[in-house]
Amino acid sequence: MTDRMQTCDCMVRAGLVITQDDSRTVIADGAVAVDQGIIISVGKAHEMKEKFIPRSDIDLGKKMLMPGLVNAHCHAPMSLLRGVADDLPLMQWLEKYIWPIESGLTREMVAIGAELACAEMMRTGTTAFMDGYFHEDVLGEVAESAGLRVVLGEGFFAFPSPFFATAEDCWQTIESHERRFSQSPFVRNVVTPHAIYTVSPELLSESYELACKLDIPWQIHCAESPAETAQCIELYGMRPLAILESLGLLNDRVTLAHCVDVLPEEIELLSERCVNVVHNPASNHKLDSGIAPVQAMLDAGVNVGLGTDGAASNNQLNMFADMRMAALVGKVQAHDAAAVKAQNALDMATRGSAQCIHWEGLGMLVPGASADMIALDTESPNLMPMHNPISQTVYAASGHEVAMTMVAGHVVYRDGEYSGIDMASLQVRMNEVVKWVRERIS
Hints:
By secondary structure, this protein is α/β, with parallel strands linked by helices. It folds into 2 domains: 2-67 and 363-417, Urease, subunit C, domain 1, CATH 2.30.40; 69-356, Alpha-Beta Barrel (TIM Barrel). The chain has 16 helices and 17 strands. The protein has helices spanning 45-49, 90-102, 107-123, 136-146, 167-180, 201-214, 226-236, 240-246, 264-272, 281-286, 294-300, 311-314, 319-334, 342-356, 389-396, 423-441; strands at residues 6-18, 26-35, 38-44, 52-59, 64-67, 69-74, 126-131, 149-156, 187-193, 218-222, 254-258, 276-279, 303-306, 373-376, 402-407, 410-414, 417-418. The strands form 3 sheets. Strands 1, 2, 3, 4, 5, 14, 15, 16 and 17 form a 9-stranded mixed β-sheet that branches. It has a 4-stranded parallel β-sheet with strand order 6-7-8-9. Strand 11, helix 9 and strand 12 form a beta-alpha-beta unit. The chain is globular. The model has no long low-confidence stretch (mean pLDDT 96).
């Protein structure tokens, strides 16, 4: 029997394995075989032992193994602004507090905020995320060093900003990022105009042409609130999605963040055009932007992912919290307790989000997928008894039951220890930035 056994880099064994495969299989006493950062087999532990000789054996005991979560909409360095300006509507929050602070951020400050965000995300089970901010090359370096996957979105506006005098400056920066990270298995890029009301139609079209030229995704905030819709109608005489449709900017390369204020016929259009939508329930609630009609989108066949948005408008980068909220508020919005089921929410945070960030091989534990996985402590009181693993994952887990986070077959977090982040040093550096932020808003 031994001569027929296959060697592999690692075998991860757990009491439960949530695969998120096409059949949504859950395996009791399961194992995942990993080689060169890729999953090569998933099955019952006793059967896997007879097939593979691992160089490293990770026995997680009774813990639950599942795919790493994918945060499809984030502004990671904004972790530095957590709690700076709470309980305000979107436009007041942006114009009076967030943008004035951001205008003074240095590359060093962005690096500190990025590192803090990476620590929080890997601590709560996120293994990949799509971002939108400034000095994104700094975030790429930080995420790569920490061991997380990231899609960098260098944000821009139609008007000159402290970061870009012109849109052309941003195009050059994005192309520079593409060259800088072209060989990185952890870092990709996305073209990221801020919003329809802050970027002119001409520049929206130009930015999309750049995305096509580089063959990378294109993302934008869209239909985030009724106030945004009113602003678009005042500026252009059309609703946000109608503007994008008139420009030919609705297709499967596109990911739209929010889509709160959308009409039934617009949902059908999103489905017809194969547009990806990222739901951000916590941020939408905190800014009183409204509740996205997620069940209607799912019913129409729209791919819906899940995001936290930034820590300044959510106060957490914890995908477990947003999974739970997505399921709960989805029921309220649809007036149906059966809407946005637990499995729907988990799909959004894994497979759906992976599609939103245009990164194949994420969000599931199947042969050929990336070995990105997390383990939850099922002996945590709030996860007992384990009648239904999917239900417990969405409705009961807080994210702080995560005992291990693995990316590409490498453990980046386990039981309070980070392999690529020095938390003591980070805290010292962060406290200096905190002083600067407080002085700027005083």
